[in-house]
């Protein structure tokens, strides 16, 4: 089980972090996750991805003001850069991250 402090430390220690909030009862979460993780891995080598199960880790979800699932939070350089909830496409997430990520990593 992770703590809010663990997550904050990961964000602090890594240039690019994605938090993926989901729950076992969420079918959309399970359909989206493998596609999203594959796209992140293929396009962005430096990303640290952290999965957060909101059914167990409600404090972490509350800390990041996440009230719907699935929710993706992307942090670049320690700052929240992108927040997507519920209806998102993998392509849209990749497209929005690509340019700032490339600038940051060059």
Automatic annotation (TrEMBL):
<dbReference type="Pfam" id="PF00085">
    <property type="entry name" value="Thioredoxin"/>
</dbReference>
<dbReference type="GO" id="GO:0005737">
    <property type="term" value="C:cytoplasm"/>
</dbReference>
<dbReference type="InterPro" id="IPR013766">
    <property type="entry name" value="Thioredoxin_domain"/>
</dbReference>
<feature type="transmembrane region" description="Helical">
    <location>
        <begin position="60"/>
        <end position="78"/>
    </location>
</feature>
<keyword id="KW-0472">Membrane</keyword>
<feature type="domain" description="Thioredoxin">
    <location>
        <begin position="4"/>
        <end position="94"/>
    </location>
</feature>
<keyword id="KW-1133">Transmembrane helix</keyword>
<dbReference type="InterPro" id="IPR036249">
    <property type="entry name" value="Thioredoxin-like_sf"/>
</dbReference>
<dbReference type="GO" id="GO:0015035">
    <property type="term" value="F:protein-disulfide reductase activity"/>
</dbReference>
<protein>
    <submittedName>
        <fullName>Thioredoxin family protein</fullName>
    </submittedName>
</protein>
<keyword id="KW-0812">Transmembrane</keyword>
């Amino acid at each position: 089980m992770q703590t809010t402090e663990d997550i904050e430390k990961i964000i602090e220690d890594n240039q690019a972090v994605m938090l993926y909030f989901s729950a076992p009862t969420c079918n959309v979460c399970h359909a989206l996750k493998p596609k999203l993780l594959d796209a992140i891995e293929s396009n962005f080598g430096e990303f640290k991805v952290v999965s957060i199960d909101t059914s167990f880790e409600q404090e972490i979800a509350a800390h990041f003001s996440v009230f719907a699932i699935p929710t993706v939070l992307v942090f670049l350089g320690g700052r929240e850069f992108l927040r997507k909830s519920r209806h998102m496409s993998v392509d849209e997430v990749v497209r929005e991250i690509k340019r700032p990520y490339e600038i940051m990593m060059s």
